[in-house]
Amino acid sequence: MAVRRRRGPGTMRLEPRAQTPAWLWLAAPVGALAFTLVVTSLLVAWAGAPVARAYALLLQGGFGSRFAWTETLTRATPLILTGLAVAVAFRARLYNIGAEGQLYAGALAAVAVGGLHGGVGWSLPAWLLFPLMIAAACAAGALLLLGPAWLKLRLGVDEVVTTLLLNFIVLLLVSAMLDGPMKDPSALGWPQSVAIAEPLQLGKLIERSRLHSGLLIALALAVALAGLLRHTTLGFEIRAVGANARAAAFAGMPVAAVVWKTALMSGALAGLAGAVEVAGRAGYVTLDMSPGYGYSGIVVAMLAALHPLGVVVAAVFVAGMLVGADSMSRAVGVPTYIADVIVAVALIAVLVAALGVRWRVRWR
Amino acid sequence: MARVGALAARAVATDAGPLLRLTGITKRFGDLVANDGISLELRAGEVLALLGENGAGKSTLVSILFGHYAADAGSIEVEGRALPPGEPKAALAAGIGMVHQHFTLADNLSVLDNVMLGTEPLWRLRSQRAAARERLLQVAQRFGLRVEPDARVGELSVGERQRVEILKALLRGARILILDEPTAVLTPQESASLFATLKQMVASGMAIVFISHKLDEVLAVADRIVVLRAGRAVARLDAAAATRSGLAEAMVGRAVAAVARERRAADSALRVVCALRDATVRQAQRLLLDCVNLEVHGGEVVAIAGVAGNGQQALADLLSGVLALDEGTLEVAGRALAARPRAWIDAGVARIPEDRQGVGAIGDLAIWENALLERYTSRRFARYGVLLRERAIEHAQRIVERFDVRGGGSAGVQARTAALSGGNLQKLILGRALTGSRYRDVVPTLIVAHQPTWGLDVGAVADVHRRLLEACRAGSALLLISEDLDEILALADRIAVITRGRLTQALPRDEWSLATLGLAMGASDGGAAAPRAGHDAP
Fold it and tell me: Which ipTM was obtained for this model?
């Protein structure tokens, strides 16, 4: 008897794979990358630029020279920190979308402690003031996440909404501070804060570049966080609560305390990103000091599958794309937005590939 | 209404051939062959029972029949016409209706709305409620399925909801009705009433596929029986010629020895391990537990029987440290315990939750991590906040070995817990609860087991029962909350029945019969709508 077979849209089904074949572990990321290249090639061609040359320029601009590497790593530094902030929070299913705001809060706090006038005015020795400045930045970022964490735990308010909206509030606060108490009088009316004291600024890692020792802080924290998640009871709690909070609570884990601790860590990491940007780059806060590092941190964390060491790799990739796109844009006139598109397409492709590793798509 | 009329007419017209014919249905999931060349025929006017253990392939087979899955091989014919595979719509159009084990009703809509849902095109502005209502009442009356069209489904008892599901299928013109484990949620009396309805339906020319793993009810309701085992149809027989033991053997593939135990006489000299006095728990305005009194002694098994949704969850949560009392007192080994799971674990209470995947374990973590879940703060497994992995893994390996947890494969205890089957997961949870942090077994003061063998195959059930009884022999008290009367009758020393949050006195097992248990369970069934179409005493 002939069986009619029809194929059509809307009859797709995901079935769990009993086992993932070995070739797929390799094919999934390669496929994701290939898909990204194809899609973005179309866009580059559409913009009227030679595709191969554009890609060559992109890679060269991001990774092709000593200068390119220093620029990429400079950009990657805050991305690693915000990426870690997001990764640790997401691991515990605390969806912190507020790294951007926490970064600015950290930057403001750094200036408040380390900027003499327009700050608290403490003139302490640098060896004392520097840790105070860092601690203040971490505290500011962490405090900013405590409100949403409290609302989530006590009232069940969705932290995605509260953390996201806090970003805009913080930006307005920054704006008020830069035009008010923290305003740098010598900035010719430009909305810019006073600078932190000279000795508080982070040293350069490489001469005649912008690369600063903040990178080392970020790398150290990535390693520390990876160790924490894998080897400590707190890390075990975070992973358990994130994977299944009900089961974790049933087994006697202090779920609320774990969420609190995670919120403190996540906010502190994002706040630290702000302090490191201030201390390592300009020395002061401007309204555009972050081109969305907080939001890109989400992308970085997702690309890294929420693994702290993966965050480092993903941050360098994203930063390289952003830096490379700048030079590509100058050379062949493709808009720099192409970098955002590449990163976004890569994210989607990687997420789909990760899905494909675990699940099988059945068409019927 | 025209549909129901046509239904009878068609039934007469198709007397000649089988209504439904499955030929060589095969379905694989990875390495697992869920259905292996199953063929069967269904004639109008008969009830065909699909009997098999959990995992025998019953659900896969009906999912293929209803178009949820497409078979890898084989074909389905309805009245001689091929049914396109993997299309629920086509199955519906061919007159196949399905009542799932877990109902697919919208709780916040009325019975009528639920029945109409999806039957009307979206672009029609006015829905034809009056006509639909008329039809609903007619069909309901014809088959003796009493319902109140305007009642909210959320307020109905489980038995009533099942009626709504059946009516939904009938009003969509079903001539072949598939019922997946329909009695799992019913009292014995409700089951009897369902069986009467089914007989009436087949008498009017319909055909019914009845899926179950319970021998007695299959013998009671079916005309023919097909036994599935490991994806194959291993026996086909007429119900009249079938015996209980023959069916059991066909189902399991070997002779089955039932679990039996020596029962203890009620002995007031035994120490009271757990005492509830006037325990009351409220949620919003509802009473989840209403003045519950219960004492459990060391070494005895007290079982709580009842139809699903009568307060069992609240009782289990209360005795697991998840839920707090609103009124009354609760003591374990003479001490009041706070509503924190940690306090209960530390007091030596072993807790087996009903929902293994959702509450008992964390699927995304490794097996060794789940084995550690209740004990990771112990000084044996952590120093200064650092996990001692080697020791934890060793601990898990011991549990896996002692409790015979299989399925980790080559990864052993490093494998993801989600890879374990239900039975093995339950053994892991049991092992975790019954193994102390030092390398020796603990004898829990109290074991609270909520549906500990739900959905497990016969082998795993026997294993779980054996472990629980062993612990009891060593002195633990076991509180068994179960909806499976066979299990309760096999294990319990004393039985109490829970209905609408109230608990009867816990009487010795021998003072109960199946009939008295059934009556107590049905005393005021599940939902809040008791006075309405509530009970069907047979």
Answer: 0.83
